[in-house]
Amino acid sequence: VLFGLELAEKLDSKAVPHVIRNLLRHPSPAVRGRALRFFAHRPDAAIVHEITGLLKDNNHLVRAEAIHALCGIMKKDAIPITRPYLEDPDAEVKRAAIVGLLQYGNTGARDLALAAFRQMVNDRSCKGERGRMEAARVMGECDNSEFARHLGRLIREDSSVPVVREAILAAGKRKYPELISDLLLRLRCKNTKREARWALMGYGEIAVEELKISLFSSATVRDIRLDIPRVLGKIGSKAAGDALLAGLTLQDESIRDNITVALEEMAHRFPLSEKGRQRIESAMISEAKAYYRRSAALFVLFGHDERLPAEGARLLREMLLRSMEDARGRILRLLSTIYPAGDIQLVRASLQSEDAARRGYGIEFLDHLLFGNIKRDVFPVFDDSHGPRRFKKFLELLTIDRYDPEAALRDILTCEDTWLRAAAIWEIGVRRLRKFRGDIQGFLNCDHPVLKEAAEVVITRI
Amino acid sequence: MFQNKLTTIEKVIFLNSVDIFAHATVDQLGQIAGLTEEVQLEPGQLIFREGEPGEALYLLISGRALLQKNGEPVSEIGEREPLGTLGVLDFHPRFYTATAIDHVHALKLNARDFHDLLSLDIEIVKAVFKVLCRRLREGR
Question: Which of A9, A73, A421, B66 is the most buried (most CB within 10 A)?
């Protein structure tokens, strides 16, 4: 019956209200409530009497829906009937009365509703949890100059997760700009992350500037920065796209990973501008250079075969391989924003194949597809040549004459990736490279516990 | 290879070699390492009993463990092998009884802590899914 009611709300038949009217007497309170909601959206003065009768229903949700329906049908004329329900002990019923009075009441009625609302929202006791949740819902349904302040407090300080969630959802509906920073902080909490993401997406264009600032700020918690590209991608506006394109220059590879995923999604919906295309090309070339540098480091530190089984491999080797694989993934995602996505999808599937012939076909296809600077600077990432030839080619592309294990380790020790640096410190310990003693000593006072801990162990070995 | 008191990076190096975490990034392994507890077990010491709820995963750094079903030996678990992997994911009762054969040095990962971490990071969930799907495809 509930499913039928949901369908009926979407139908445009004159016979429907007659059928649904009978459901107001259905034994299930859920059905009675849903039928009332139907009439709240399709006002029908002929059934006011029946709906008024349901104000005395023994189920509180039905009583609340009856108030909504009456207000929807009678507008300001419903106020004298619904006003007494501001004193109702049930929070849902009280909310329905508050919303009705705020939407259709005169100044006096609205003041009464606000007084009842304040009582609910300010009851910080455990017993008041239900009331605060309903107060948050009121703020999602109506506008008032004081609501942003109350919502901000609930989002920041309330001890109840359901209350915080309702407050976040209400903020997403009303889009108060002053709450964006509170919502951003809520991206960090596992219990509220989903709602905060949804709310920020609901803000759309209004939130883009603040999202961009937080994405670029190293003062923002990394977990939040990691979530922002997804939100920007879902907002999907030109400004959101520009923020994502600008983010391609960020050092953090995991954030860049998320940015390329969001850009790839957006590219299916929006054509790239010439400037956007240039930014993508420039980002791909940077990713390719990082790939060549990591590949060269891998070669000088661990030899030429990059496909050795993982077992027994050293952490640094594993991390360099992973980092190269990630860079390739980012390049492929970026390629799909400026080349036909279907073609790049085909290449991606071929490159992941265990069949060498299929991988070769994918590389050949890509070779024919790419052109210009991208072909010259990026295609070698997918080149399947091995060993010294590949190493030499990458050094040429990096315009470096000589690269040895010491230079590679120094490069890694100064990179942005903390774990890669930690692995390099560990590798120095494994190889007992005494010439790095000074570098390792520098990490002994480091703020990052993993780097400090690794340095403390390694310094005893060298 | 490893000392008795492991540093975070040593735990990461070790976790990196464990099948179920094969697709996890080092960043994620660092988070998992933070949840593990080092345990030392004497020869003959019971690790878990058949039918008990699967509340923790054990990753053997050194030593061996014996798996028994209805009191009968079934197999041995050695270095770098996990004990009770699937139980951590679905809290299913232990299928075997596990006992230390010799001195066992292991990392213990509490299932609830691991679930908390999974709920925080979809990327770790994806990494675990990849391993489980691979096992399914391989008919394991």
Answer: A421
